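Chain and backbone:
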Amino acid sequence: QVQLTESGGGSAQVGGSLRLSCAASGFTGSRPCTGWFRQTSENEREGVAFIDRNEMIRYADSVKGRFTISEDSTKTTTFLQMNALKPEDSGMYFCAAEPGRCYSYNPGAFSNWGQGTQVTVSS
């Protein structure tokens, strides 16, 4: 059974940093496509950053140059380093994973989700 557990959310001031972690278990075979999504109460889940087994990395335009997605040496934990935070970065951040390569960055393409971790950026 696949399980994803996020941690590292919290509050930060504008311009500050936070680091999110997503610990994955239960995957068999090759490393999955892992993505971070964020959601506010008004909006749909927005894809923020993605990484797959081929080291393919993709970022939303809104976070390019500020956020970095990476994995640990065991490839079981994915990180999202968030720098130069803005108020619009606030929201619930979800980790999602799907076996195989990243072929779609829409939430519907991911069948495994964590419970989410809240990020609040204030001035």
About this structure: The chain has a mean pLDDT of 93. The longest strand covers residues 18-25. The two ends are 41 Å apart (CA to CA). Residues 6 and 22 are 4 Å apart (CA to CA).
